[in-house]
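My current task is to audit a protein record that another person submitted. I have pasted the whole thing underneath without changing anything:
***
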Amino acid sequence: MYDIIGDIHGHAQALKELLHKMEYKEVNGVWQHSTRKVIFVGDYIDRGPAIRETLNIVRTMNENNHAITLMGNHEYNALAYAHRLPDDSYLRPHNAKNNKQHEATLKEFEVHPEEWKSYLDWFYSPRQSRRDLMFIELMCACNSMRPRRGVFF
């Protein structure tokens, strides 16, 4: 069974609270459940106060086979923002709008450039391919952080 979580946007504390409410436990630094996995549907970065911690939680769960991760538009945009073209410009322009979108993320990684590069590489890497997603239990986090269950086929 799978729990679907998206749009975390650097809110690690809210993510941990949600995982706890869904009966996930942190064991040796990895959030896990005995019978379920999370499908993270992207938008881990930008906006929130704990982007590095959020990425660590998501990536650690993914690398320990407790989550499937998908790239959201914010990760896609971050890749384009970081990708330099042959003419020395960037695939995603460094204009006021785009600078503002990535400001919180870039600030957190300002003194951790190699760590940021490793996350960019991770965003770009192939994701787990799953054929057994026949039954999904959807957990939607509302502003009140009360999980709501819905069954989809």
